[in-house]
Amino acid sequence: MKSAILKKLKPFAHFILTTLLVNCSSSPLQIQTGDIVFRSVTNAELSEAINEVTQTAKKSNYTHIGVCEVLNNMVYVYHSDSDTGVVKETIEEFYTSEKNDYSVDLFRIKNIDNNQLQQALKKAKELVGKPYNFTYILEDEGYYCSEYIYEVFKNDSVFTLEPMTFKNPKTKTFHEGWVNHYNNLGIPIPEDKLGCNPNGMANSNRLQFIATIN
Fold first, then answer.
1. pLDDT value at 8 more than 50
2. What is the residue extent of each domain of the chain?
3. Out of 3.90.1720.10, 3.40.50.170, 3.40.50.300, 3.40.50.150, which CATH number does the structure's domain 2-212 have?
4. % of the chain residues with pLDDT over 90
5. From CA 207, how far away is CA 86, in angstroms rounded?
6. Count of Cβ atoms closer than 10 Å to residue 49 Cβ
7. Are the C-beta atoms of residues 143 and 86 closer than 8 Å to each other?
8. Please, what is the angle between helix 145-152 and helix 114-126, to 10°?
């Protein structure tokens, strides 16, 4: 029943969202091609594990990230999801599912020109269909969500790589969610290997916060 209702409401909800965010040129919420969207934490075990070990001094609660493209007054998001790999979805699909309604924050990249943005979007499109990288090791096949966005903007030095940690900052021991994850994969936890995460990327000095958009 819920699924049927959601399917009926999706076109209307997307129309309203697009009208508010794209057509109102004077609105501070106007989404532009190349804008970055960060999605809030969910109740999933892996999502919580990501959030708990990646908190920064500027506290945020992001566990997912994507890049926007505006085409014919429609807003699309390119992102890498654990269920689908790298995909292109409407922004309404990005923040709404049958299981969760997410909070999404909109950021804009500073000091980047249109040619750079177009090259980044070209890269984003080329990677659509690639699998999700469940090991979170950069050298392995596929892309996890923040790795994908890092790769898209790598030539523009928007984001940086840092040693990853999978430890709970309070206990200094490996988070149980990550222990379970890597036990299931049958590989050691890649502590201190270079990587990136949504919370860290949200604190890039190349990003300007625009608004919470839903």
1. no
2. 2-212
3. 3.90.1720.10
4. 62
5. 23
6. 21
7. yes
8. 130
**Could you tell me the pLDDT band of residue 143, with boundaries at 50, 70 and 90?**
very high
Q: What is the pLDDT of residue 171?
A: 87
Residue 29 corresponds to which tokens in the numbers above?
Answer: 């919420």
**pLDDT at 102 (0 to 100):** 73
